[in-house]
Design brief:
The protein is α+β, with helices and mostly antiparallel strands. The chain contains 9 helices and 6 strands; from the N terminus they run E-E-E-H-E-H-E-H-H-E-H-H-H-H-H. It folds into 3 domains: 7-75 and 119-146, Ribosomal Protein S5, domain 2 (2-Layer Sandwich); 78-110, no CATH class; 149-288, no CATH class.
Length: 292
């Protein structure tokens, strides 16, 4: 089962006077990278929520947004009177020391650190659990999208493999004829050269030359390994877990065998097949980069 590294999931729920909204977006990355943007009420749970993400995902860049708001004004924020009084005393002492009138601006003091407090999840275990549940639901929603896209890519991979097999079979059928064509051309060239010089054609040398070409142009091992890699690729597609790194390795191996065939087989028809195979492999490689 393939999983795409690109996806989106969201969840929202109400819990008492709180509204919890979670959104998760993922894009491809070689490693797992998590970026969080949490409201004040969810910020203390950052480590726990990142751990939850790691339980679901292995690779990819993840953006996690959690917003928690309260409809209860008294519950959503409160003034920390001891902190406010401390600021006021310090400001009054400074004004008195400079012989200045003291006319405090309450709104200005309210913006100072620690004056306006908000409840924390630790103060409300039910809210803490609700945030975790909302994140888990968003991750499930994300996974559903990633599975659907992974299935679509799996179907596309199967289509590409069918095309690659067809090209491989064409090369396999053409390969013996390449040797026969070379044998005919070589015999004609040697015969023409011998006749022009009044020499006899030494069949033993001719046979050695053909044998040498056959050895250099032999692509049977490469064709066998191609089929083996096709089979391994299909096995990974059917596996219970997504294995993007293994697919990436197999694409590299397929490319290596294809390049070897292209360099060994000195034949126009085979070269056309090799170019087509390279084009398909590049398309596969682009898709594989988005597989977890």
């Amino acid at each position: 089962m393939l999983l795409s590294m690109t996806g989106h999931g969201e969840s929202s729920k109400r819990l008492g006077g709180y509204a919890i909204e979670v959104e998760i977006r993922t894009v491809n990355n070689r490693f797992l990278k998590i970026l969080t943007k949490l409201s004040d009420l969810a910020a203390p749970l950052e480590s726990d929520l990142e751990g939850l993400v790691r339980d679901f995902l292995k690779r990819g860049s993840v953006s996690l947004y959690v917003r928690v708001t309260s409809s209860d004004v008294e519950e959503s924020a409160f003034v920390n009177q001891p902190v406010l009084q401390a600021y006021l005393r310090a400001a009054k002492e400074a004004a008195d020391a400079m012989l200045l009138p003291f006319h405090p601006d309450v709104s200005g003091f309210m913006a100072l650190p620690g004056v306006l407090d908000t409840p924390k999840p630790g103060d409300n275990p039910e809210l803490e659990q609700g945030i975790r549940e909302a994140c888990a639901e968003a991750l499930q929603d994300l996974q559903a999208m990633r599975r659907a896209e992974g299935e679509a890519m799996s179907n596309k991979f199967q289509e590409y493999l069918r095309d690659l097999r067809s090209l491989r079979d064409s090369i396999s059928r053409r390969a013996p004829q390449v040797v026969l064509d070379y044998q005919t051309k070589l015999e004609q060239r040697i015969r023409t050269a011998c006749e022009s010089r009044g020499l006899d054609l030494e069949s033993s040398e001719f046979v050695r030359e053909v044998a040498l070409f056959c050895d250099k142009a032999d692509i049977s091992e490469e064709l066998t390994r191609l089929e083996s890699h096709f089979h391994q690729f299909e096995t990974v597609l059917r596996a219970s877990e997504s294995q993007g790194r293994k697919l990436d390795f197999l694409v590299q191996e397929l490319g290596r065998e294809t390049n070897t065939i292209g360099s060994k087989a000195n034949d126009a028809e085979i070269s056309v097949c090799v170019v087509s195979m390279k084009t398909i492999l590049e398309q596969i490689r682009e898709l594989v980069q988005n597989i977890e």
